Amino acid sequence: MYRDVVSSLTNMRLSEHQLHQKCREEHLPLISLKFRWRTVGAFLKLTEQQLHDIEIDCRGEQERRMATLRSWMRTFGDRATYGVLMRAMLRCQDLEHAMNVGVILLRSERRLNSDSKSAALSIGMINCKNLS
User: Fold this and answer.
1) CATH topology for 2-102?
2) Cβ–Cβ under 8 Å, residues 77 and 52
3) Are 50 and 75 a contacting pair, CB within 8 Å?
4) 130: burial class by Cβ within 10 Å (0-12, 13-18, 19+)?
5) 12-66: pLDDT as tens digits
6) How far apart are the two ends of the chain, measured CA to CA in Å?
């Protein structure tokens, strides 16, 4: 299974640009569906105090996963990237969720590209109408 997932990640062909993009808040609910929050948090270089606070302050596992990601994003700012998150998940053997992050990123890029093309077509149509 490990080889299959690594092969799938390789086949995703995520660009360096994509991997270096800062994680976006809107993706957190999808990313946080299920992972070992304490282990991933440690690989994301959250302090033991931050992890302890999350455990005390948050009741359920889903809330802890969201809090882990938000704490990481607050702490590391622009360095809280999709690539860093995927590597952390891979390092703690959470292959399925590392792949999930990649899929979310690819879908987001496709949607943005599609929206940009639609906007460009609309602008082109407006410009053509103005010419006639």
Assistant:
1) Death Domain, Fas (1.10.533)
2) no
3) yes
4) exposed
5) 667 777 888 898 999 888 888 888 899 999 999 999 999 999 999 999 999 999 9
6) 60
